[in-house]
Design goal:
A: mainly alpha, two-stranded antiparallel ribbon, 36% helix, B: Arc Repressor Mutant, subunit A, 9-stranded mixed β-sheet, 3-stranded antiparallel β-sheet, binds zinc ion
Chain lengths: 95, 475
């Protein structure tokens, strides 16, 4: 397998996920299969191919600098786990 | 061992657009928390960001003013990290194809002019604001700032002292203000600076590990933090003490830097192309049209101030270091012709008063015409220069027109010989010992007598005339 359970641990930590030993093994296998699948691309000669920046052939989609009404704060905060003084309340995170 | 300090800077400037980078929420500062937010800037699933055309224009403008090459093909990327100020758990930024690359800024140093190279200028979105104080075991999050367009300006490590870095920051701020892409208000967080600093033996045989300092919110704090770190790195290098690559926080109250504790250090941003945004391909004519729209920049204005107004280099340097100050000066010059007198007032009393009150040249509380009026009152002898300084303080405090202050407070200079002679005779009568001293050859006594006469007139006596008449009366 390309991805070891320790690497799953590391990726999970970056995403603040807590995984069981069983899940780590499952995801190690899934992630490995994905990488192996993508690896098949390296069989192709891509020396003369520009790296793809986007799958669509569109470019320069912009909007004008205009202000439109924002969301009502009550609606915005309605999914917040906790609210205080019009703010999202989260566990303290300070250095 | 000869030791060199190496400083590189990353400066974030909020762009002065009306709406955010990828949605139509307002960017206005100071609104009630979380009232400038929508599903896009708070990272709701299924939304589609759309870039603000004006933000791209401003970024290109900044790149051109900083002498960069503008990329004809550029794209946005996701920078992934998990922090509550980032609602999507990624920041839309630019990784391998930034909008602007390879520019420079020229600064003045003690050893003469120096060129600081710019590695890149890229676009990104700002994060929200965390409020830590007063909420016990919690922090509060305000997402009004999340999604405000930013440019990040990254330099090469070309600055060799905190003073050079300070000069670079001042120059950069001036340029951004001149081209009007950012209001550069540090107290509102529109301009923030990260510092990378280390020390190296001049022969490159040894170097200390780089210290990063993030989000220094005033140039003064940045320079002080760099001075502290410069000393620490130089000592470590000379003593052979081991150093580690680390992030340190500047504690302004204690005047020291403190290492940030550990586990957050291992940043792994896992950049990848932003699938929701298509590439930016700017054509040459668009870039050229923005180049043509660039206004006069600080360096050009400096040269013009010397040639057009005959100002000394020092004056031109100070006046053009702020767009507002330079504009103010030029507005004065449309109604008055002695450039040096106006410059003296601006560099002297005006800047002193601004500094004392922690204000910027954009805050001068009275129009240029008032300053010119004040100067003219001195020119035509209505008031003396020392009274003018008092009038100035009043103007600065209340924004009042100098004519009104002079009239209300009866400050018109006494230049009437008869009136002055009467006062002089009184002074001579009341200060016999000093008069005797003067006659005995102690010339200093004259100054004392002048002072007494000034006191009696509340400073309003015409000083030249007073001196002349007093000497005549005494001899
Ligand atoms: Zn929004």
């Amino acid at each position: 397998m390309r991805i070891k359970p320790e690497e799953v641990d590391y990726i999970a930590a970056l995403s603040r996920l807590v995984l069981s030993e069983q899940e780590k093994n499952i995801y190690a296998r899934h992630l490995s299969e994905i990488l192996e699948h993508a690896e098949r691309l390296s069989e192709l000669d891509t020396d003369d191919v520009e790296p793809t920046a986007h799958v669509l052939s569109l470019k320069n989609i912009f909007r004008d600098d205009e202000v439109k009404p924002s969301l009502e704060r009550d609606i915005l905060l309605s999914n917040a786990p906790e609210v205080e003084n019009g703010c999202f309340k989260v566990p303290r995170i300070v250095e | 061992m000869e030791v060199q300090t190496l400083i590189g800077l990353e400066v974030h400037a909020e762009l002065a657009t009306k709406s955010k980078m990828f949605c139509s929420c307002s960017t206005e500062f100071g609104a009630e928390p979380n009232t400038h937010c929508c599903p896009i800037c708070t990272g709701m699933p299924g939304v589609l960001p759309m870039p603000n055309k004006k933000a791209i224009e401003y970024a290109v403008k900044a790149g051109l003013a900083l002498n960069c090459d503008i990329s004809e093909f550029s794209k946005m990327d996701r920078k992934n990290y998990y922090y509550p100020d980032l609602p999507k758990a990624y920041q839309i930024s630019q990784y391998d194809l930034p909008l602007c690359v390879g520019g420079y800024v020229d600064i003045e140093t003690e050893e003469g002019p120096k060129r600081i190279r710019i590695r890149r200028v890229h676009m990104e979105e700002d994060a929200g604001k965390l409020l830590h104080e007063g909420w016990g075991n919690n922090s509060l999050v305000d997402y009004n700032r999340a999604g405000v367009p930013l440019i990040e300006i990254v330099t090469e490590p070309d600055m060799n002292s905190p003073a050079e870095a300070g000069a670079f920051l001042d120059k950069l701020k001036a340029i951004l203000q001149y081209i009007e892409v950012s209001d550069c208000k540090m107290e509102e967080g529109s301009l923030r600076c990260d510092v990378n600093i280390n020390a190296r033996a001049s022969d490159k045989s040894m170097a200390t590990a780089i210290t990063e300092m993030k989000n220094l919110n005033s140039f003064k704090a940045a320079v002080k933090a760099m001075e502290y770190e410069e000393k620490r790195h130089r000592e470590a290098l000379l003593e052979g003490d081991p150093t580690v690559h680390e992030t340190r926080r500047w504690d302004d109250a204690r005047g020291v830097t403190v290492a940030m504790r550990g586990k957050e250090e291992a940043h792994d941003y896992r950049y990848f192309p932003e699938p929701d945004l298509v590439p930016i391909a700017l054509d040459k004519s668009y870039i050229e049209s923005i180049k043509e729209s660039l206004p006069e920049l600080p360096d050009q204005r400096y040269q013009r101030f010397i040639s057009q107004y005959g100002l000394p280099q020092y004056d031109a340097e100070i006046l053009t270091s702020s767009k507002y100050l330079a504009d103010y000066f030029e507005q004065c010059m449309t109604i008055y012709d002695n450039a040096k007198t106006v410059s003296n007032w601006l560099m002297g009393d005006v800047l002193r008063a601004l500094n004392e009150n922690g204000k910027d040249p954009s805050d001068i509380p009275f129009p240029p015409a008032y300053l010119v009026d004040l100067i003219k009152y001195v020119d035509d002898g209505t008031i003396s220069i020392s009274i003018a300084k008092k009038v100035f303080d009043e103007m600065f405090a209340n924004g009042t027109d100098p004519g009104a202050i002079i009239k209300e407070q009866g400050l018109v200079q006494i230049s009437d010989e008869g009136e002055l002679l009467e006062i002089i005779r009184q002074v001579i009568q009341e200060n016999a010992p000093s008069v005797a001293d003067y006659k005995a050859g102690k010339k200093k006594a004259l100054g004392y007598l002048v002072g007494q006469a000034m006191k009696l007139t509340k400073g309003k006596a015409n000083p030249q005339l007073l001196n002349k008449l007093l000497e005549r009366e005494l001899n």
